[in-house]
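Re: your question about GTP cyclohydrolase 1 type 2 homolog

S., sorry for the slow reply, the queue was backed up all week. Below is exactly what I fed in.
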Amino acid sequence: MLVRELVSRFEQFAPKSWAEPGDPVGLQLGRLDAPVHKVLVTLDVRPEVVAEAIEIGADFIFAHHPMMFRPAKNLDLAIPQNQMYATLLQHHITVYGAHTNLDSAPGGMNDWLAAALGLQQCVGLVPSNGVGATSEIMMGRIGDLSETTTVREFALACKRYFHVDGLRLITHTPEAPVKRVAILGGSGGQFYPAALAKGADVYVTGDVSYHPGHDMIAAGLNVIDPGHHIESICKPHLTAMFQQWAQENNWAITVQASQLNTDPFTFL
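Result:
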């Protein structure tokens, strides 16, 4: 089969037009008409992931985070990122990225994250700015826990749910009750007013910076920052989805989730 067949089916699930303006989603490197036999699903496209793809014989990398957030200014192969591009081309590996369109898609990234927290009766958190997105296409989710807990206990539970060694808790009331929870994968600090407006007791998101953290506390919102890498939850979900489509469409491909942890942070 060809790369475009899998891409076409995926874009029925999460159209590129649902991505936030300026988000570089879609084909990152290679050709849509390239043949594909083995797919490697990853959160990030890093040199070690490319080496993994070569080792397992993958000819298509499907990533959540776009490989090219910032355009290359030159093709100096002494720069590791440029060398990675060259290695991909040398091994005829096609790369595709689905970012905020997957974040907004019903049944996509933020539904997977909400399910990991056990949230019930979820609704969308932030309207998508993507072209043609309807009122049902939203980033983030907000829902209720089955039982009330505390901010502190819920933060500890998040460590278990997302398999992280550490997280940041932004609160002055760690023993406050928690029932209603908002979550937005990735860097969602700017959207905390939406969590407040929809009655969240806790907002879970990554990459919260110093001054917004102060603003969140002043506004009376408890925030849990388990990092950006929790979005790696997409790997098993996308793998299972692609395997199901392959079976339904008689695609002669195999699909494998990357086994690598691409989180750049280590907790000591």
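The chain has two domains: 3-102, 106-229. The longest strand covers residues 138-150.

Happy to talk it through on Thursday.
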